[in-house]
């Protein structure tokens, strides 16, 4: 007798897993979106020109008729934040920026620096000295509670207070740009107290030299 062959059901599990792995690989290796400069109070990245490439170099092995796209320098950003979110540091190719929450520096609805504030500002001044900063930006921000006009005034007063503390430790030749933006340029959702707390802040930034 000829033995009968029994059809086995298709093994879909491994096949689906393999397809999922392939899709994940494609996602992970997809090109990153184009880099862009800061908007709002941030400054465009001050980077050096990209390295020139000879489009006629045979090692490029480009298809006939193809052309190289214009070169770009990506501005890489490193962000470090304390566990409680009270202080945040951002490092890019072009600058260093610190963001301190208002509660760390001031009392409620006040522009008078608190006891712990000067020690934190002194650390920022030390970093500015290490970077040989010749100019420093000090920007104040608030949440969206209260009137917009009050937020503008309070944020400017707080930025002024931080600048004056920085000036005590930095060289007199350092130039400052001081602004109060009020509730403009939030970094978190003002619909929650946690978000409003993050938005109440003073940012100090200066060019990176090393």
From TrEMBL:
<dbReference type="InterPro" id="IPR006311">
    <property type="entry name" value="TAT_signal"/>
</dbReference>
<dbReference type="InterPro" id="IPR050330">
    <property type="entry name" value="Bact_OuterMem_StrucFunc"/>
</dbReference>
<dbReference type="InterPro" id="IPR006664">
    <property type="entry name" value="OMP_bac"/>
</dbReference>
<feature type="signal peptide">
    <location>
        <begin position="1"/>
        <end position="37"/>
    </location>
</feature>
<dbReference type="InterPro" id="IPR036737">
    <property type="entry name" value="OmpA-like_sf"/>
</dbReference>
<keyword id="KW-0472">Membrane</keyword>
<protein>
    <submittedName>
        <fullName>OmpA family protein</fullName>
    </submittedName>
</protein>
<keyword id="KW-0998">Cell outer membrane</keyword>
<keyword id="KW-0732">Signal</keyword>
<dbReference type="InterPro" id="IPR006665">
    <property type="entry name" value="OmpA-like"/>
</dbReference>
<dbReference type="Pfam" id="PF00691">
    <property type="entry name" value="OmpA"/>
</dbReference>
<feature type="domain" description="OmpA-like">
    <location>
        <begin position="93"/>
        <end position="210"/>
    </location>
</feature>
<feature type="region of interest" description="Disordered">
    <location>
        <begin position="31"/>
        <end position="63"/>
    </location>
</feature>
<feature type="region of interest" description="Disordered">
    <location>
        <begin position="189"/>
        <end position="210"/>
    </location>
</feature>
<feature type="compositionally biased region" description="Basic and acidic residues">
    <location>
        <begin position="53"/>
        <end position="63"/>
    </location>
</feature>
């Amino acid at each position: 007798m000829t033995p009968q062959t029994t059809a086995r059901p298709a093994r879909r599990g491994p096949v689906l897993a393999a397809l999922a792995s392939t899709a994940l690989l494609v996602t992970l290796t997809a090109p990153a979106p184009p880099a862009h400069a800061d908007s709002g109070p941030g400054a465009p990245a001050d980077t050096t020109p990209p390295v020139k490439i000879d489009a006629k170099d045979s090692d490029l092995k480009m298809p006939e008729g193809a052309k190289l796209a214009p070169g770009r320098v990506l501005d890489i950003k490193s962000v470090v934040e304390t566990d409680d979110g009270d202080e945040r540091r951002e490092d890019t190719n072009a600058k260093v920026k610190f963001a301190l929450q208002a509660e760390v520096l001031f009392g409620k609805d006040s522009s008078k620096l608190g006891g712990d504030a000067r020690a934190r500002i002194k650390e920022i001044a030390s970093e500015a000295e290490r970077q040989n900063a010749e100019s420093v930006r000090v920007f104040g921000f608030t949440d969206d509670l209260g009137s917009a006009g009050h937020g503008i005034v309070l944020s400017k007063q707080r930025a002024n207070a931080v600048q004056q503390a920085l000036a005590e430790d930095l060289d007199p030749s350092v130039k400052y740009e001081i602004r109060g933006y009020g509730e403009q340029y939030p970094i978190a959702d003002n619909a929650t107290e946690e978000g409003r707390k993050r938005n109440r802040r003073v940012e100090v930034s200066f060019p990176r030299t090393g």
